[in-house]
Specification:
By secondary structure, the chain is an alpha/beta fold. The chain has 10 helices and 9 strands. The strands form 2 sheets. It has a 7-stranded mixed sheet. Strands 6-7 form a two-stranded antiparallel ribbon. A hairpin with a 2-residue loop joins strand 6 and strand 7. Helix 3 packs parallel to helix 4. 42% of the residues are buried.
């Protein structure tokens, strides 16, 4: 699919969407470098993989919202799922198609240039929809996304989403100790927040799990949710983990054991939430 052209005067929302797209386009070529090898990201990624496999058998049809360079989509295609991978960044979609070809799974993976705000352009019925590492935090109308997910996923089908959370104790402590109080509290903003990446801006909304679920509650029943990277630091602190791997592995085991408990599950760099179509 090709990029859309709007001849009318762009609205503030149009500008934010374009800036977010340009930000991800700007990093697509090397997005799998240091980020792809980040142990903290991989730990969270594997949790989502395991959860999708718990929810749905191989052979199921999946929709990936915000596929990036296609790491998750290729993993599921290798596991005999049939995947439609969508993203707002055309450069990311190009890289996802290349990855599918390189992995020999292009027959089971269709990568399309469709933003989360454009899901009405996707047709068909899916057994499940997943999204990893916060693309849904960039959706300007979460209730519209929920309605489109309800249209696309079969009754009883699953949503498995990894979403950037609002309360991150590691982040607050890290920046507060450096006197950067405004940065420490950036996720507390109730509206859209500009986040810098590669000299560009990503327009982002942060959520508590129940805030996020409220947009989906009309169409989906909440199954469960848990914190990701609560005791472990956020991915941009990965150098700490590399200096003391044994210590942080113990913290990782605490994440695994305790991240689903009440109160604790409302914190963390991301949260993983599972819902079922009513």
């Amino acid at each position: 699919m090709t990029m859309r052209h709007n001849l009318a005067t762009p609205t503030p929302l149009d500008v934010r969407l374009r800036e977010t797209q340009e930000a991800f386009d700007s990093v697509a070529a090397d997005y799998d470098g240091p980020r792809g090898n980040n142990e903290l990201i991989q730990r969270m990624r594997h949790t989502l993989w395991a959860t999708v496999r718990e929810e749905l058998p191989a052979g199921s049809r999946l929709l990936d919202l915000g596929c990036g360079t296609g790491i998750d989509a290729v993993e599921f295609a290798r596991s005999r799922f049939r995947v439609t991978a969508s993203d707002w960044s055309p450069r990311m979609v190009e890289r996802a198609r290349e990855r599918a070809e390189e992995a020999g799974v292009a027959s089971r993976l269709d990568a399309v240039h469709v933003g989360i705000q454009e899901l009405d352009q996707i047709e068909g019925e899916f057994d499940g929809i997943y999204s990893n590492f916060g693309p849904l935090n960039c959706a300007p109308d979460l209730e519209k996304v929920a309605a489109e997910c309800a249209r696309l996923v079969r009754p009883g089908g699953s949503l498995v989403f990894s979403v950037m959370g609002r309360i991150v104790p590691w982040e607050v402590g890290h920046y507060a100790m450096r006197g950067r109080l405004r940065r420490a509290m950036v996720r507390g903003a109730r509206g859209v927040t500009p986040v810098g990446m590669n000299k560009h801006t990503i327009w982002t909304w942060y959520y508590l799990p129940r805030e996020f679920y409220a947009a989906f509650s009309e169409h989906f029943a909440l199954s469960r949710y848990r914190a990701l990277s609560l005791f472990m630091p956020p991915p941009y602190m990965v150098d700490r983990v590399r200096r003391r791997p044994a210590f942080y592995e113990r913290l990782g085991r605490m994440d695994d054991r305790l991240g689903g408990l009440p109160l604790l599950r409302d914190m963390g760099d991301h949260f993983l939430i599972v819902m079922h179509r009513r």
